[in-house]
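Side project, low priority. Logging it here so it doesn't get lost.
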Amino acid sequence: MHGLRRCVAHCPNGANSIVDGKVVMDREKCTACGVCTDWCLNNAREVAGKEYTIKELVKEAEKDRMFYEDSGGGITLSGGEVMVQNMDYIEELCRILYNKGYRVNIDTCGYAPYENFKRILPYVDTFLYDIKAMDPEVHKKFIGVDNALILENLKKLSDDGASINVRIPTIGGVNATEEFMNEVADYLKDNNIRVKQVNLLPYTTRGCTSTASLTGLTTRRNF
């Protein structure tokens, strides 16, 4: 069997296929089972990361306990998208961390069933909530889905008393305009959405983002 086709033939979920002579993976079908890595002759594939039990993950997080206490910070669950993971696991993890006295933050794009948010709401200090575009068609063009569920969940979180930091990843040619910032501000005000602050996250190609706080905007626009 041709080496290139081994990972395709042995994938139990049919996630791999050959397109124009290259192996292409369908991420929606991939379950990260690792079978393809066993059949890859060139060792070009590997399953990154490590699985932790809740007990193991809490123990790992507690290694930085002194840092949390000195900085006044906490533990942030981030992505991929944490709100579409195993919610039994996420809820129990948040509950244990909360009961141990840690501040728990959730970094989310908001695109998840609201019942997932409701499950962890009692244990979360702050939701770091992304808004990338206000126009649903623009959102769908760049993100792949419209923003109806995202904005609906944001309103529900506010109504349920959640602490929210709105974060705006600003990208030139997409949303880095004064008009867009005003649209976000007007939406928050018109829908009575209470947020602690708004942060701009300037886009960079260096693999990280910097944060610019707009607490002054929050005051001026009466969020």
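Brief comment: Residues 122 and 157 are 12 Å apart (CA to CA).
Revisit when time allows.
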